[in-house]
Amino acid sequence: MENPTFWLGVVGFVIIAYCLVKNIKGAMIYGIVFVTAVSWFRNTNVTAFPNTPAGDSAYEYFKKVFDIHKIESTAGALSFKSIGKGHFWEALITFFYVDILDTTGTLYSMARFAGFTDANGDFEGQYFAFMADASSIVVGSLLGTSPVTAFIESSTGIREGGRTGLTALTVAGYFLLAFFLTPLLASIPPWAVGPPLILVGVLMMRAVVEVEWGDMREAIPAFMTMILMPLTYSIAYGLIGGIGTYIVLHLWDWGKGLLQKHG
């Protein structure tokens, strides 16, 4: 808490929180822009470009404004030399189930947040949502990028009123623009984007009231899921912990039911 950038982040948090309380559209953007603008001034205690070799290098890159990040070294750089080895399949299976759980958790939580789920917890177009996510990951891997998948940050667009898909298309257009503005976007400090994510978590807590906290077999898995996500920095690990706990707590009931059925 002695770091000045922490307190600048707190100011950004307060700005966004106040705008949310007053139901002002663009609350997240206002906070991010303010904190980022202040951080771009050099020779201050909260600058994103300190007077160090790393800071000087970052500032020189920032001054370019326009730049295109080349992908020749990553696009199409595929290798299957280790396909016959155990660690190859171990990594493949790990990525497979982590992505499935991560995507499932993100899509359904966002659909619930937007009010799209029905009585069974499903939402319209879920099949195509998973297909789009899977196709994007394949294309992203061929280009050598990190997984092109659904992210929990989508909740900010939903919070601002996005429902029909126009928000997603608008964001896609901004991503295309960002392709040419890498120096500027790479210079947005973490203490500018941290507060919005914290407040997104606050907005998503409304789903917690639907948990049957009086039933320990439901409450414990739900709590494990919620606590493991921030501790492991992974939605997938949180879901794995919650599902695993749910299975363990219900094994006795399931076994008893089978014995009664076949007894």
How does this structure look, described?
- With 263 residues, the chain is mostly helical.
- The chain has three domains: 1-69 and 185-206, no CATH class; 85-178, no CATH class; 211-263, no CATH class.
- 65% of the residues lie in helices and 0% in strands.
- It has eleven helices and no strands.
- Helix 10 packs antiparallel against helix 11.
- The protein is globular and about 80 Å long.
- The chain starts with a helix and ends with a helix.
- It is a multi-pass membrane protein.
- Its main location: membrane.
- The chain crosses the membrane at residues 6-24, 88-108, 128-152, 164-185, 191-209, 221-249.
Helix content: 55-70%
Radius of gyration: 22 Å
Largest sheet: none
**Envelope shape:** globular
Structural class: mainly alpha
**Which segments are poorly predicted (pLDDT under 50) over 5 or more consecutive residues?**
none
The helix tally amounts to 11
Overall pLDDT score: 85
Distance between the termini: 63 Å
How do the helices and strands follow one another from N- to C-terminus? HHHHHHHHHHH
Whole-number total of structural domains: 3
Give me the count of strands.
0
Sheet-strand content, in percent, reads under 5%
